[in-house]
Structures are given as C-alpha cells and as structure tokens.
Amino acid sequence: MAAIFKKELRSFFFSMTGYALTAFFIAFVGIYFMIYNIGYGYPYFSYTLSGVTLVLLVLVPVITMRSFAEERKNRTDQLLFTSPIKIRDIVVGKYAAMTIVFLVPNVVFCLFPLIIKSMGNASLLSDYVAIFEFFLMGCAFIAMGMFFSSITESPMISAVVTFAVTLIMYIWETLIGYLPSSAFANLAAIAVIIACALLLLYHVNKNRYLFIGLTALAAVTLIVIYAVDSTLFENRLSLILSELDVAGAFNNAAFNSLFDLPGTIMNMTIIGVFIFLTVQSIEKRRWS
C-alpha cells in the first residue's frame, strides 16, 4: 500500500497537478477570507468555508477522475491486477494519496482563524471543528469520485458523474423539502431506491441468486409493513434521507457551532462504503 501511495502522490506533485489544485484552492479561499473576515469583519472563518463549499464540485472531480479510469483506458491496470499487491491496498493507497492532496490546503486553512484572533475576537474551537468537518466532507466526496472512476474507462465521464453527484449532495437539504409526504408515494420512492441499490450491488458482484433473493425479501418486507400500518411510511423518505446529508455535519459546525457526532460517523461510514464498493468493482473486473 505504501508503494501505491507514494506513486500516486508523486504523480500529483511531479505533474504540477497537486500544486495547481492547492494554489487554486488556497487562493479562492483567501479571496473569500479577505472579503468576509477582513473586509466585513466577520469573526468566524467557518462562514468563509461555507461560502467556498461550491468549489468542491470542481475540485473533487479533477482529483478523482484519473484515479482508475485513466489506467483502465491505457490498459495499465493489468499491471496492478498481476502484481502481488492486494486490490484493497491499491484502492486504499490511491485514496490516501488523494486525501493528502486535499489535506494540504486544509492545513493552511488552520492559519486563518489565528489571523482573525490576532485582530480581535475569534471562535477558534468552532472554526477548527468546521475545518475538520469540511475536510471530512471532502473526503466523502473523494471516495464517491474514486468509485465512479473505477466503473468507467473515461476520465471525463467519471468527472461529469462525480460533479453531478456532488452537486446533488450540495443541494441535498433543499431537494428533501420537495419530497412527497403521503404513505404510498413514500413506499414507491423507497422501493425505487432499494431497487437501484440492489442493481448497483448486482453490477458489482454479478451474483444473480443474491440479487433475486434480496429483491424478493425487500419487496415482501415493504408490502407487509405497508399492509400492517401504512402510516409508518408517511414522511419516512424525508426522515431517512435527511440522515444522509453529507454536508449536515459541516453546516452544524459552521452555522450552529456544534460538533455533529452522528453526522461525522455517517460521513466516515460513507467513506468506508465507497472504498468497499471500489474494491469490489476492481475485483470484479480483475476476474472477469
């Protein structure tokens, strides 16, 4: 894993990609810092971070789009498949390198609250919690982007899909507000989501019997619950999806000065899930 990590990290900084991304991100945040914290005198650096969250929609696809897609396109992935290194170690090594690229500007961001403190009042604890949650949110997006890169051989398609997904996650809270509240509509929506998840699972492992069994189990379970007490489905989708808000923990830190432990655990879980899915995707292609 260490060899893969060093190789990927060198590829970012020897090609100037890492330097360019880091410089762009720090400059972008610096402009907002000058406007919000220096110009308007806001004592919270977390406000600045909330204003630049949108830049992750561009930054993350650029970091992740080549992680596996380009190797698949150039057929250099066959060298990895035949090497003695475990697929898990390859995936984790690549992911660790990408998170380090994202970590570098976040370390620089830790200086900004100290600058605010030197000029007057500052809320260092809430600002550093916000920086941590911002970094963790970016790591979750990177894990998603890495997975999308593993299922295509086109870096451009990987970037577009990652951009679309991160955009949806960015406006997640707003989208939830438009969901229906009726029991039947929520039943249908939950059934569609489960079906999509099962199709994704089938795409990864190609186990037909597992797919059929889980589909039948999910269908029977939903029908029985709806028949026994349909009110359980009222607003259920909104309640479930609100727990999957990747930006929720950061928003709580930035605007409410709260450390959202469930949101932090959820983001870590998302990272683990997408790393696992990436491993399964690569394993399937290795033996196909």
Task: Please describe what this structure looks like.
This protein has 288 residues and is mainly α. It is 80% helix and 0% strand. Helix 1 crosses helix 7 (87-109) and helix 9 (124-150) packs parallel to helix 16. The longest helix has 27 residues, at 124-150. The protein is flat, with a radius of gyration of 21 Å.
Indicate the percent of residues in helices.
Answer: over 70%
- Uncertain regions: pLDDT < 50 for 5+ in a row? none
What best-fitting shape do the alpha-carbon axes yield? flat
Q: What's the β-strand tally?
A: 0
The arrangement of helices and strands along the chain is: HHHHHHHHHHHHHHHH
First-to-last CA distance:
24 Å
Strand content: under 5%
**Average predicted local confidence, pLDDT:** 85
The DSSP helix count reads 16
For the biggest sheet, the summary is:
none
Output the radius of gyration. 21 Å
Class from helix and strand fractions: mainly alpha
Features:
288 residues, mainly alpha, 16 helices, 80% helix
Layout of helices and strands, plus pairs?
Layout: H1 2-14, H2 17-39, H3 45-52, H4 56-64, H5 69-74, H6 77-81, H7 87-109, H8 111-119, H9 124-150, H10 155-170, H11 172-176, H12 183-205, H13 208-228, H14 236-242, H15 248-256, H16 261-287
Helix pairs in contact: 1-7, 2-3, 2-7, 3-15, 4-9, 4-10, 7-9, 7-16, 9-10, 9-15, 9-16, 12-13
Question: Short description, anyone?
Answer:
It contains 16 helices and no strands.
